[in-house]
Amino acid sequence: MLPNENCANEVKLLIESKQDRQTDISKHAVQNTLWAYMSFVLGKGLTFVATIILARLLAPEQFGLMGYCLIAIQYLDILNTFGMDTALISRRDKLEQAANAAFGVSIGMSILLFGLAWFSAPAIAAFFDEAGVIELFRLLAFVLPISALAMVPRAMIKRNLRFKAKLIPDIGHNLAKGLASILLAWSGFGVWSLVWGQLIGEIVSTIALWWIARWRPTFRFERQVTREMLSFGGHMISVGLVGALRNNIDYLFVGRILGAAALGYYTIAYRVPELIIRNLNFVVGNVAHPLLARLQADTQHLRSVYFSYIRYISLFTFPAGVGLALAADPFIRFFYTAKWEAAIFPMQCVALALAIASIGHVPGVLYKAVNRPEILNQTTLVKMPATIGALWYATGWGIDGVAASQVALAIFYVILDSIVVSRIIEFRLGGFVKALAPALSGSAVMAMALVLLNSSVSPTGLAGLIFLIVVGLVSYLGTLAFVSRETVAQAYTVVMRAAVTRSSVARS
Hints:
The protein has 508 residues and is mainly α. The protein has one domain (27-507). It has helices at residues 3-57, 60-81, 84-90, 95-128, 133-140, 143-159, 167-186, 192-213, 223-258, 260-293, 299-335, 344-357, 362-369, 373-394, 398-425, 429-456, 461-483, 485-500, 504-507. α3 packs antiparallel against α4 (95-128), α6 (143-159) runs parallel beside α8 and α9 runs antiparallel to α10 (260-293). The longest helix is centred in the first third of the chain and has 55 residues, at 3-57.
């Protein structure tokens, strides 16, 4: 064989090897995303059913009181892990020492934070001008040490891409929480039923995670590894705190300025869009982080996987956002009853905002995967002034104004994140638009079909909801097949392969 032929064959084999690797990565990504999202859908589906029942048993003010407690506990929960879960997933060497360090730090922090929560409860109650928050928050604070015990097992399962295994703890958490809350609410415990349900769910989840992960601390520590973990975690702490403030500043403003009842309506408005759209972002982040971390030095593959995530996320979240926005009225009136109709317009806006924001979630995951968490700090700090200013001003129009401002903020976030990530993995705007084009066109046609249907028929009740869903799906999928048959075929092929083939990554 001639030298040139040898060279040509080697190049061909190299190209085929890269193509196979890219296909394998896509399959692993989709398979683990499917398992992770199945876990979320089943678990959160139970939560949705429980919420419908609880909304009929409890008043908006009681949901608002629980909302006050959850707002405060979220900030302490970020400190609780000290970023150790993210640092552990990104770790490439000396895993045993890193896991021991993460476990020790999280347990120590949880004890300190529980004490802080206990003594700060009166101040939190004074901030929201609601004395009933004190005892509720002190009981809810027990979730901090319980969740700290589960941090390393949960991170190890994610790191090893064992998302199928997470079905049991995720479903167990939501099932236990829902059943406990409903039974206690039915028995007349009021808002306390929500707090006890949260604690019982966390206990069940923690036990299941330890059983499935089969990780045990060995108490082998290395000073340098601990320092590196703390350094990475320090970045994630600041990212998490600022990010939580940005993501929950609307709850803070609604609760502090507009009151417990308004917070109750706003919380219900978020429930279904959060279940269907926002949770997909967390699922994608859980799968994408360990996967992208394995491609840290390969810009070409990072770019390819990034566009794949953007394309497939938008294919789901864009029509989900449009559909929820146009079905919010009959949905809330049927499931939650007319006493919750003040949540209709906020739910419409939140659905659209979360759909837009979904494509801005992957850049943050990418920054962590390539060990550049400081970029998250920088971009989040840029977003903060706009977020605080817009939401504070919007409270003048009640929860409707706050929800509407979320749409504008989501557009701003996506533009900013896309500009930053384009400089890291070197892509042009054309590639980004091309990835979104199928979902945009399909969702636009779907929106027109549902608007015409609503204006001419005004569907109501369960039959009307089903009719809206069917029309929306038919118009969306029909448009998608017409404008981008190749995308539909690729998505179908990858999903089917992922569904029937066990990934070698998952086996390891």
